[in-house]
Structure formats: C-alpha cells, structure tokens
Amino acid sequence: MSGRPGRSRGGGPPRSSRRGVRSRLEVRSAAGQVLLLQIVVAVLLITAAVVALAFQTRRDSEGDARNRCLAVAEGFADAPGTAEALRSADPTTALRASTISAQQGSGVDFMAVMAPNGTRYTDTDPALIGLRAEGVGRAAAGESFTEIFKGAPNDAARAVVPVTDADGNVVGLVAAGVTVDNVGDAVDRHLPILLASGAAALALATGSAVIVSRRLRRQTHGLGPTEMTRMYEHHDAVLHAVREGVLIVGDDGRLTLANDEARRLLELPSGAEGQLITDLGLDDSIAGLLVSGRTVTDEVHLAGDRLLAVNTRPTAPYGGLPGTAATLRDTTELRALSGAAEVARERLKLLYEAGVRIGTTLDVVRTAEELAEVAVPGFADFATVELLDPVLRGEEPNGAHTEMRRAAVSGGGADRPFQPVGDLIRFVVPTTPMAAALAGGHAVLEADLAGAHGWRSQDPEGADRALAFGIRSLVSVPLQARGVVLGMANFWRAAPTGRFGEEDLAFAEELAARAAVAIDNARRFTREHAMAVTLQRSLLPRSLPEQDALDVAYRYLPAQAGVGGDWFDVIPLPGARVALVVGDVVGHGLHAAATMGRLRTAVHNFSALDLSPDELLGHLDELVSRIDDEESDDEGDGISGATCLYAIYDPVSGVCAMATAGHFAPALVRPDGTVEILDVPVFPPLGLHGLPFETAEVRLPEGSRLVLYTDGLIEHRDRDIDTGLRLLRQTLADPANPSPEETCQAVFGAMLPAHRRDDIALLVARTHLLDRDRVADWDVPSDPAAVAPVRAACGRQLETWGLEEIGFTTELMLSELITNAIRYGSEPIHVRLMYERGLICEVSDGSSTAPHLRRAATTDEGGRGLYLVSQFAGRWGTRYTATGKVMWVEQPLTDGSQPAPEPDLDDLSWLPGEPL
C-alpha cells in the first residue's frame, strides 16, 4: 500500500498542494497576466537600477581615489623642505623616510619623488628607485594632473604634482596613487548593499503585485480576458433580451442603466442615462420610489395605462456603487384588481403613517389621541379610544375591564354623538361588540348597528343619537400589549362612506397592535417618570433653613422627558456662615436621581466637617470615583459625569469662598446693578482625578445678589452657552435691585425654554453683613492668668447685648475653651463673640490638634471640661483654618421671654462615673 494519504508514492507534496501552486501561477487569467507583467517590469527596473548604481559607485570610488592621491601629492610637494631636499647632494637619502611616513599616514598605496625627467629618487617600493616613470611629462612642464594609469608595476589611480623652487622652476615631481584593485574593493564593499536593496525592492514589488493580482483575481473570479469578454457579451444579451425591465439608479438620483424593456414600459426618452429620475416625466409614485432608496417587493404602481409590479434593492451590498436596482413587470392584466391594490396601498400607507405618528411622545393620553387622529379619515369617519384608569396613571392594569375612561375622540364636529373625553364608559352588556372584543381578544365587526341589539340595549339613548347622526358600522378592537388589556379602540363609519367588511378586521387589529405598544411604552415611562420625580423631590430640600446671612429664593424644574440629577442646597455653617451648593449629575431617570441623592448627602456630611470648598470638592471627587468603580464593576453603568459648585459666605467679613468642579461660575449682581460672571478657577468634573481644586475668594458688598444655576437654564438645542450667558446677564441687569424671589421670576420668565430636555435649578442669594456692634473679639496671651480678664470682658459684652441670662453659662464654657487653648494649643489665641440668632463663641489658636470628647474616670482630675461644654452648648465643634483651628459653641436664645436655664452645679449626676 502507498504511504500517507494525499502524498504520491515518491513522497512528494500532495497533489492538491501542487494544484494550488499551479493555480496561483496560472497566467491564463487576467489576474495571472497582470501579476506576471508586474513582476517582469519590476525585475527589469530593479536590475537596471542595480547596474546603474554599481557603475555610479565605481565611478565615485575612482573619483575619490584621484582626489585623495592629488591631495597627498600636493601636500608633500608643498611641504617645507621638499624642494631643498631635491636640490641636495643625495635626494634619495633626504626624502626616503619622509616619503614612507607620508605614504603610511595618508593611506595611499604608493608614493614616489622623482626628478623632472621622471627618474625616481625615492619610492615606497625600493626596487623602483632609480627607474624612470612613464607619462610624467605634463608634470615636468609644471602641470598637476590625475589619471587612471595602466602599466608597470600596477594599474592605478595616480596623481603627479611638480615641485617648484622659489623662482617657479620645476625641481622635481611627486607621485601618489591607489591601485585599481583597492578601488575595486571599495566597489565590491558596496555591491552587497546594492544587491540587498535590489532584492528587497524586488520582494516589495512582488508582494504589492501579488496583493493587486489577488484583488483583481477576486473581482474577475479568475477569468481571463476572453472569458470576461464572453461574460459581458452574455450579460448584455440577457439584459436586453429579458422581458422584464431593469433599471439602476445612482445614489445621486440619476439613471445609470436601463434595458430595452424598461425603456418600453416607462417610455423613456433616448439619452435618458445620466439624467435625474425626476426629470424623465415618470409617474410621481414610481419616481419617488426609485430615488427613495426603499426596498420593496412587488409594489404595484401605475405608469400611464400600465400596472407595474416594482421590486427595488440596494446595489452596494453586491459589489456595485451605492444606488438602487429596480425590476419592473408589466401586470396590466391585473387592471381589474387595481382598485383592491389601491386600497391595499392606502392601508399600507396608513400603517406606515401610524408607525410614524403614533408614539411621538411618551404621554399616554397624547398617544391615544394620535391613534384616533391616524384612523380618521383614512380608515374610519370617527374613532374613540378608551383606556383603563390604572393605565392613565402609569400603573400596571389589573382587575375587570368593564369600565374605562374615554381618552380620545376624533372625527366630526362639536355635535358628534359620542360621550366626551374624560367620561367613564361601561361595557356591562356582554353581547356588545366591545364586550365581545375584550372577551375574545380580537377585533369584532358590527356591520349594521341598526340591528345590533346588544349595543343598543347598553345605552339606548346614545345609540339612537348615533343612528340619527348617520353612524352605521363599527369595528371594536382591544388594545393589548404583552397579553395585557390596556383599553379599547372603536372605529365608526357613517352611511356615505360605506360599511366595514371582514377585510377590515385584520387592518384594525394591526393598527391597534401598533398603538398598544406605544401606549404601553408611554404608560411605563409615566410610571418611571412619576417614581423618579417622587424620588428626586424627596431628595431635594423641601424648605430652606433659617439663617440671617442671606435672603435666598430658588426654582427647580425637572426635565419634561425625564428627571435628571440637578440639585441645590443651602447649608448653615458655624460662625453664622452659610454654604450654597449647586450640582448636576449627567443623565436622566432613577439612576441619576439616586446618584444625586448620594452626592447631596455626601456634601451635607462633608460640610459638617467644616471643610474649605477645595477640600470638600476633593473628598467629593474621591467619592464619585469610588461610586464609578463600584457601579462599573457590578452593572457597567457608572456616573458618566457630575459637576458641583460649593460656596461659603461669611457675613462677618463679607467674603465668599468658592470652588467649582466642572460647573458654571456664579453670576454676581452688585447693588448698583452691574453684573459679572465671577472668575473662578476651572477644574474638570468630579471623578476624573485632575489637579487639586482651588478656592477663590470674593468680597461681596452688602445687598449683592449671588446667582447659581445649572446648564439647563442657559443651554438647550436652540441656544448655545454664550447666548444663554449673555441673556442671563441682560436679565439680571436691573437697576431696581429686586428681591431674590423677583429675580427668580424674571430669570425664568426670560430664559425658560419651551421644551425642557434637562433639569433646571436656580438659586439666588442676597447678602447681608452682620452688624459690627454684634461682634466682639479679644486677643488672649498664652498665660492662664489671662483667662479671668477675658471672661470678665465677655460678661460685660453680654450685658451690653442684654444677654445676662446666659452670662454664667457662657463664661463657664469660655473659661474651659480658653484654658484648653492656653494649655494645649499655641499662639496666637483669639476669642470672638457673635450675636446673631443665637450667641456664637469662638476660641482660635495656632494648633491643629483637635480636642476630643472622652469619658473621664472617677479618679481623673481633668478631662471633664469639654464634656461640660457639650452639655451646656446647643451645638459645638471644631473647624480648621490655614493658621490653626477654631473651637466654637452656639447657644440658642429665647428672645428674652424666658431666661435660658443655667446649669445646676450641685447636681453632678449626669457626669460619667460615680458622683464626686
């Protein structure tokens, strides 16, 4: 038996492999011929280039050798002492050593010094000394020359230079040369590079030729010129002999090709190729179809007195240029059916319109109205749509279907005999077409309503009005999606337009099915939108906190298509300061609203630490990055973008410190009415880990208005950002200095877009300064003896403000805080009292070490001072500054009606541990 399958007995390559090689080398095909021609041309060009480069290299090498020999000879001839040595008694002895040294140092193959008649005084070959050189007559005449010398002892590139004395007389000759063998060696050294370059060029040319040939082979399917010519002859024969019209229309709407049958059917003029389809006098429907690019199968069109079945397909997927290929069949014998075809065409057109016009919004009622509007007058004279109450509310329908709410009525005028929109429609009689359609789940026809006893018995008075109006026929079809009934559609025809038939049921069901899907989508959107709005409003502030630093007004509107992630906040801070926050989470829906709630909560928590704006945004940036990582790993849907502006206003100094992460800078309206967009350093949105954030500080005059907003206010599809900012500045530039509430009304009145694609948040705050008479401060030396004088000064200040009732408690807490600052802190130590809604006491020092509340043991001598402060103060805490920290306490006031309770120092039962 033979060896392995697929190999010959001689062990050669498989036959299939040899056939593959022969097929690739086959030159009968057009691709093979092109490949062979390209390789031959490449070989000839590369060979010529290599030969030319070899000659050029040899020529350059010889020229280089001549120049080098001439330079060496001239240098030796002009060297000091050469002429004197030639005139010496023994030139051979005088010049031999220098000649050998010059030859070795210059790299020439030989060097000789001769008498003017050519007799060698010295030579690098001692055997030649005394012999006469040939061909040096030109040098003896005073001319330097180079040549390719052929003769004894070797063929060489030689230079001969005369040596002259001071009077210009030739006293000798210097010859230097390089043998031809060494010149050839230089050429040989370049030859491998030339050959390698030629081989690489040949390989590259062959590779590109193979690629081109393969592509040509694919396009020609391996056919040779003869076969291709025969194929195109057959193509033309079939194209013009077939009894079906063929058209090809380019994507520019021009006729590219038309066979004889197409010219006959469409009565095309001569020279129609290249003209626009719309300029050929075709029927509008056919011309519109040919340039529309639509794909149709056996779509019927009238062309003059002929009825044509048209098929269109795109040409691009099959290798042609972009365009449309159309075939036309003459179906004039079906003229009798043209009426039915026209009806079917109108029905298809109506279904197409239904797909386009129904569901343009995500509103349930509007979708029902669109269904009624599409059906009239193309299919029915009147249409009514009823929906279940849960569907109208966006809820999942359940329970009985005997009661529905009328959602839409279309057709006729105000006197139409149908119950108006909003009425409750009941289907209590089971023999009515509506009840039968709901029970069976398909369309029900009532061709003659005059004999529909069940329909008439359900509402005799309404039925009589409808019959008197001319209503004669009805098709009832349930609106179902996912197997769940959403409502009912009723189509009515009056006497002049004829009655419904059985052929209308399928169309009514198709129309209702498309509308039901759109209604169900709108219902689910309504539910999600309501949930998102509820969630978002629950996460936004329901009321503004009480504070005296700012008069604040705000507006918030969710997007009409779905809620987003915009939010705002007003957060009171210690020291009578107030934080203003505006942020935006990119996106819409529940995810954006939930993310907004997380970020708003985070801002509240970070603000409780009393951080500066840049530090707070840094923590928020880290939080957003973590949220992104977690959600991307779990669901692949992280926060695609979030921005935030955080500002802190201090009513004592009037300074507003702010920082932004990808958010628009606020607008400032000064008391004189001038408006400017504040220059706040711009940083990337949250979660991108950019450079550290930077805080900008602006001193605001009292009565200034600070306007914070989100991008939905200034930017939408009909207005760019620059236009929106310019309009905002114009709106805010009101010299009357309106209140924040009036400012909100004016901005929304001027800038609110007709259709909101994004949430809009607006926050307007008018600044106040705390009266200087209500602020008192003292510098405290780092000496425990200074506590008593400061405490006494504070007591006198409280008496001045009329706060004697809380004097003792305040002095006690100040004593503890000042003592802690002196004992554990560092200078400078400062005390400040502020009388606002409450009494605020602040003790600052230069240390960054925060005190901590702890539980003291019964044997501890200290550790209870901060606990006393926490018990007597309404609020207390620590905030850090650039120079240290501030310990603050707040005490609520009772406006004098009832004195604040003073601590009972005799009752120490609230202290930790056993009573002392």
Give the arrangement of secondary structure elements.
Blueprint: H1 15-25, H2 30-77, H3 82-86, H4 91-106, E1 110-114, E2 120-123, H5 137-140, E3 145-149, E4 156-164, E5 170-179, H6 180-220, H7 225-241, E6 245-250, E7 255-258, H8 260-266, H9 284-292, E8 296-303, E9 306-314, E10 323-330, H10 338-357, H11 364-375, E11 382-387, H12 389-392, E12 403-410, E13 424-426, H13 433-440, E14 444-446, H14 453-458, H15 460-469, E15 471-481, E16 484-494, H16 503-539, E17 550-557, E18 564-572, E19 578-588, H17 590-608, H18 613-634, E20 642-650, E21 655-661, E22 667-669, E23 675-677, E24 696-699, E25 705-709, H19 711-714, H20 721-732, H21 740-751, E26 760-767, E27 775-780, H22 787-801, H23 807-824, E28 829-835, E29 838-845, H24 865-872, E30 875-881, E31 884-892
Helix pairs in contact: 2-6, 10-11, 10-16, 11-16, 16-17, 17-18, 20-21, 22-23, 23-24
